[in-house]
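ZP: hey, is the uracil complex queued? I don't see it on the tracker
AM: it wasn't, my bad. submitting now with these inputs:
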Amino acid sequence: MTVFEVKHPLIEHKLGLLRSNRLKTKEFREITSEIASLLTYEATKDLELEEKKIKGWAEEVSVKRIKGRKLVIVPILRAGVGMLDGLLNMIPSAKVNFVGLYRDHDTLEAIQYYSKLSRDIGDRMALIVDPMLATANTIIKTIEILKKAGCKNIKALCLVGAPEGINKLEEKHPDVDVYLASRDRELNDIGYILPGLGDAGDRLFGTK
Ligand code: URA
C-alpha cells in the first residue's frame, strides 16, 4: 500500500482552516468539499487515456479520453457524503455507490447497515471516501464489501489519518492506495484523531 500525504499549499491552507473550532457548518462543508476535489486530482493521476479523433471547429483533431469503465465513488455513510460533491465536481459522470457503517461506541467495531453497489463494480476503479481514517475499521470493512462484490481496483481518499489506522489498513489491504491531506499524530483513547478535526459527521451536518 502507498500512502500519499498530498502536500500542496492549497490543501495545507484549507486543512488549517478546517482545524479551527470556530467554523460554521457551512464553512466546514465547503472546505471539506474543496479538499476532496484537490485529493481527487491527485488520486486520478494514473487513469489510462486513449486517443480519439473528433471533428474540431476547423479540422479533425486528435483528443484524449479516459479509457474503459472508469470510476465509482463510494462514500461511507454518513461523513463520506461530505466529500462526495468535491469528487463529483471533478468527475461529474462517475457512478456513486453507498456503504452504510456505524462505529460501535464501546468496541469501535464497524457494523454494516446498508450497501447499494453497481452491478459492474468489478470493471471500475472505486474511490472510497471517508474524512477520518481513525481506527480504519470502517474503511477495512468497506474494502471487504467491495472486494466481495468483485472490485479489484480500490483507492481511499480521506482528509486526515492516524498512524494506527494507516498501519492497520496497510496490513489488511496492501493493494489499496490511500490519499490523505494529513497524516496526524495519534488516536486518543476513545478513537478520535489528534490533532484531528473532531467528529467530522457532526461538523459536516450540524448535528452537535
Ligand atoms: N471519526 C471522526 O469523525 N473523528 C475522528 O477523529 C475519528 C473518527
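AM: back. The mean pLDDT is 96.
ZP: great, adding it to the tracker
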